[in-house]
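Hi there, hope your week has been kind to you so far. No rush at all, and the record is pasted right below.
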Amino acid sequence: MQGAGQRIAAELRKVIVGQDVVVEQALIALFAGGNCLLVGVPGLAKTLLISTLARALDLQFSRIQFTPDLMPSDVTGTDVIQDDPTTGHRRLAFLPGPVFANVLLADEINRTPPKTQAALLEAMQERRVTVQGRTYELDKPFFVFATQNPIELEGTYPLPEAQLDRFMLEVVLDYLPEEDEVAVVKATTALPPEAVRPVVTKDEILAYQRVVRRLPIADAVTRYAVSLVRATRPTNGVVSDYIKQYVSYGASVRAAQALVLGAKARALLQGRASASFDDVRALARPVLRHRVLVNFQAQSEKVSTDQLVARLIETVPLPKSSL
């Protein structure tokens, strides 16, 4: 799996400069079978990263540009009336929407009303959609990579907590260092880069996802992931004072599942046969930052979830283990 990750990363490097951590986290979501939310200001190559990743995977790719007038049927598909030439009668036939793909790019997902956002909920969690009372299975593998712009909030619809919880990781893209930015300007103002070619097939992706789930993990590492998640809940009797002071709601058990699966995928991508505490720590921010709901006091004092997670990493003790 390490070789597959390196091949995909090499194809991404033909058009993406820098953002090593972002590329690694996108690959972790891919091999763990999770959905990914990318947050960044315009111009940081969020859409380019996902479209390039899809081209490197030899998977069916679909893109939805979310707008205020987008309807749920524009995402899932709908029944249309068709003429049957053999009988001369008319009948209803299902016309699949763009969600019927392997990699779905939901661009600017917070630009559409909650009714349309919710059309993705069933697809993201159960890999199927229900239209007019009939259920249609989605082809495997299925990933949703959504992008969100943290500025220009006027006319946007924040994602509800139930849908945010369906994203395995929230990946934050920041501005590039100066040297990387110079390299981007040079590359994009010269001849077009070498074409990205598919280097991993659909069957290989499904096989790697099974390998991730079969990888054994030490009980102490699992307990540490659960302890981190439980420490985010202010209703838990033994949490730190700063969690009670700044947090309204903590993370659900999906966060612990994402930490363990992500830690396994990260270990395999780095050529290791076991996940460690460091893997859990490395994924704590992207797994928890969109699942921990801070209160008004935290917002007024500009205390971010990333800062709270950093303090948790420092204070939550490691379980006793031989690792």
In short: The chain is about 45% helix and 15% strand.
